[in-house]
């Protein structure tokens, strides 16, 4: 482990005498959520797809020896019966904080579109900012451009800097933007700067992860999306060595007041990766439908196959895990590579 790795490693003391539950053990949580929701691909039933993921995720957390407090979940206690903010999950054990998006891209699944994932972030107690659910302006880059971008600068400047970091021209970059009317000007500015754009219907955690990993063909994610997705993105980019810069984007006085209650008196304050997630441990995502980074769930007779990314700040590993799940005890005649 390098010196820098030691500096950023989670404190062993945070385990409070309990066995450390590994990142790979947590992977069951997103795998089960993905397996449950992928049955709904293309069925036009976003709520049922989401409900299946939430149920499966909560049930699987219940099997783990953790005392996990949900800090980013399905909503406040009175809004969500399961995985609400403040709910404690697990069978008891390692204390941790949990941020979940059981199904990132419910509409993607309803339509059978690409890029839906099941994702959760695990942090030390006090390690994940419990952001109020509202819009957030975000700029996400991978390690190549970490520390070099500035969300307050015009996007053309950002693209110029990122292009230099990648030692290429702006026209050789791909920027991901959520396809929303609120991004009309942003899209025009990016086009004027000359970068390629991938407009996505939903799923900005998936988009940020893709920009955070080299070789996906994506370089920057920019625009206004959900704040809770921003926190999960921060945890992931911290482990991947990338960066998110963010500003909350309240739309009215009520939202501005909520921000103050969450300790943000200046809504224009730029929040950095560690502000959103000061103590990340693990982030795990499993593909529900195919994306640039992860394959979606594939079913076969008596089984299914999932593809996950397991980011681990304890062990300093990033694993891509391809799992074959056998639904029956009858031995399979063949396992396919
Ligand atoms: C994004 C996207 C999500 O919400 O955060 C987006 O990543 C923002 O909200 O998958 P709007 O849809 O209101 O623009 C999602 O699309 C989930 O709803």
Protein traits:
eight-stranded mixed β-sheet, 10 helices, 27% strand, Fructose-1,6-Bisphosphatase, Chain A, domain 1, 337 residues, single chain, six-stranded mixed β-sheet, 2 domains
Q: Which spans of ≥5 residues are poorly predicted at pLDDT below 50?
A: none
Mean pLDDT: 94
Q: Main beta sheet: strand number and arrangement?
A: 8 strands, mixed
> What proportion strand?
25-35%
Structural class of the helix and strand makeup? alpha+beta
State the order of secondary-structure elements, H for helix, E for strand.
HHHEEEHEEHEHEHEHEHEHEEEE
Q: What helical percentage do the residues reach?
A: 25-40%
At the first level of CATH, what is the class of the largest domain?
Answer: Alpha Beta
